[in-house]
Design brief:
By secondary structure, the chain is of the alpha+beta class. Helices cover 25% and strands 30% of the residues. It has nine helices and 21 strands.
Length: 429
């Protein structure tokens, strides 16, 4: 009988901090992570700061755990957002739902550092308010305030053990290639499908103490059918802005901005078109503001037609592109902005993914809306255990943004719904 190999995984830990003022603290953190048998990653390998933001995002994506070390400096800022790269990394890791913790240097430790290397090298001078706001955000229950540099190593060991041993996080980690004892590449397509069905059945049978053979067989085949896909989306970003018309506050302009990155499209699907279900008023006011495919401008070339579908109730009109625009190369980036006008309480939008999507994110923004209205929104996904609670606010009350996200690599059929609500004493808290 072949003895089973024990695979010990290493986990990648992304270290985020300001640079010159925390060199010694970062060194301690790196040594602590290496001592624990894991892989440190961070800014010191990039050299170029903000010029390498996409690279930093990729490294955070590939990391299992994120740790922030915060001293007294806010750090260099991004020209577009005016936020520091340290804050951008922190917020990006939060958005990606990467397990994280923070180590914050205490006031007494900062005072000792200031005496050693000078106040100008320890304390923020230019963006004091931004630093204070960021620090207040960082000081969560998972943050650890340290009075001595030596506490950094023990804090890292403690938090790493806590996260790694918590099954709720389901960390992926890294393992040597030769630790894998299974050769699935040798299986035929049919054998692979049958193996998937057997594993699916085994997993379900361990969770349900009843006969689930039919359930597992049907659903394993449904999953395999879903995997016969025609495309893959790296990312889907949408911003929905709702703004009252100056001539009539009961009417709103809806502006939708999409940034889409296609990773793969099967032959015959390498094109981009528009299909929009609408009321008569929405259809007649629909306008393509801008369409860029890999920075080539197709705005004037995209013509739309309006068709009536009388059996669809309120949304009986269909706006669609007269012809699709070709996608000449992959991966492909698309910037698409459109707008339409409708009564505020007629606003309703629902979207379902057609292709699997790695990173799905939607923001709803109320612009200059009065207190009569609020937004109600929800996501839906067969693979999400949180569903309607997996975004920051299910109801937006005229301040801030309503952010909707789906689990990483959501499957076709997952999506969101958002609508406006008229507030009153009877239906609103």
């Amino acid at each position: 009988m072949m003895q089973e190999k024990v695979v010990r995984k290493k986990f990648q830990v992304f270290i985020s901090s300001t640079s010159d003022d925390l060199k010694e603290e970062r060194k301690i953190a790196i040594e602590a992570i290496l001592d624990a048998g894991h892989i440190p990653a961070g800014m010191e390998i990039f050299k170029g700061g903000g010029e390498k933001w996409e690279t930093i995002q990729k490294w955070i994506d590939d990391s299992d755990i994120y740790v922030l070390i915060l001293g007294g400096r806010y750090g260099s800022t991004d020209k577009q957002t005016n936020l520091s790269y340290t804050q951008l990394e922190y917020e990006y890791a939060q958005m990606k739902k990467i397990p994280m913790f923070s180590i914050v240097l205490s006031d007494s430790l900062l005072e000792r550092k200031a005496k050693e290397i000078g106040e100008e090298n320890v304390y923020e001078k230019g963006n004091v308010e931004l630093y204070k706001r960021f620090k207040s955000t960082v000081l969560t229950p998972t943050a650890k305030i340290v009075d001595w540099k030596e506490q950094i190593a023990t804090t890292i060991h403690s938090h790493l053990n806590s996260i790694i041993n918590d099954p709720a996080y389901r960390l992926i980690g890294w393992a040597r290639a030769d630790s894998n004892i299974n050769n699935f590449h040798a299986l035929s397509d049919e054998d692979a499908d049958n193996a998937f069905e057997m594993i699916f059945n085994e997993v379900l049978s361990r969770r349900y103490p009843v006969d689930i053979d039919e359930l597992s067989k049907i659903n394993s085949r449904n999953w395999l059918e879903r995997l016969n896909i025609n495309g893959l989306l790296d990312s889907f970003r949408r911003r929905i802005e709702l703004e009252p018309m100056k001539t009539d506050s009961n009417m709103i302009k809806v502006t939708i901005t999409n940034i889409i990155k296609y990773q793969y499209l099967r032959d015959g699907y390498q094109q981009f078109g528009i299909s929009f279900k609408a009321t008569k008023q929405q259809a007649n006011s629909f306008k393509i503001e801008q369409l860029l495919i890999d920075e080539d401008n197709f705005t004037d070339q995209m013509e739309c037609i309006i068709e009536k579908e009388s059996n669809r109730g309120q949304f009986m009109y269909k706006v669609s592109s007269k012809s699709a625009m070709p996608i000449k190369q992959l991966p492909c980036n698309i910037y698409y902005k459109c707008s339409y006008i409708c009564p505020a309480l007629d606003f309703y939008q629902s979207h379902r993914l057609v292709f699997p999507c790695e990173d799905f994110y939607v923001t709803v923004v109320l612009k200059n809306m009065d207190e009569r209205f609020s937004v109600v929104a929800s996501t839906f996904s067969a693979l999400s255990t949180t569903q309607s609670d997996d975004f920051k606010a299910s109801e937006l009350r005229n301040y801030g943004d309503c952010d909707l996200s789906l689990p990483k690599w959501s499957m076709p059929g997952a999506g969101y719904v958002v609508t406006l609500k008229n507030k009153s004493e009877n239906n609103h808290a």
